Amino acid sequence: xxxxxxxxxxxxxxxxxxxxxxxxxxxxxxxxxxxxxxxxxxxxxxxxxxxxxxxxxxxxxxxxxxxxxxxxxxxxxxxxxxxxxxxxxxxxxxxxxxxxxxxxxxxxxxxxxxxxxxxxxxxxxxxxxxxxxxxxxxxxxxxxxxxxxxxxxxxxxxxxxxxxxxxxxxxxxxxxxxxxxxxxxxxxxxxxxxx
Length: 195
Hints:
The protein contains eight helices and no strands. It is an all-alpha fold. The protein has two domains: 15-66, no CATH class; 72-177, Up-down Bundle (AhpD-like), CATH 1.20.1290.10. The longest helix has 35 residues, at 143-177. It is globular and about 50 Å long.
């Protein structure tokens, strides 16, 4: 049975109705690594209601998504872990196909969606999974967990990895608070809580 869809709390701003600040945000999105076809949907749809903040946030997002030293497979794996933790429907919808294209196996994606430790995940993915789970549960990471990830990421990539987690937690919170969902014809990835 498909999950009940919550009502979106912010209207999407149509391009023809955008003010100067909203147009600047859309221009920044389209001139950046996301490309000309980006639509003001998902988190960008919410940020159109606070475009000055959106400009700053999208710049950070462009960096953590496209310019870190992490391999895209590991970056997308971390994004899916974050989406699952927050049960962020749009984040999952947007990134599960990207993760698969970047080499995250379908079974790993399915296990993450189900809330399971991913069977068949690589040693690196499992180390990242344990780091993410520990960080989100305890708000800290132990030396053992830190050292395990540091061993293959090193300093710069580990700092960027934490940045990815923080940015996508911001995305997830934005999506969840404002009920920014995938298109109506797409089943939700996670059950929605009853209000």
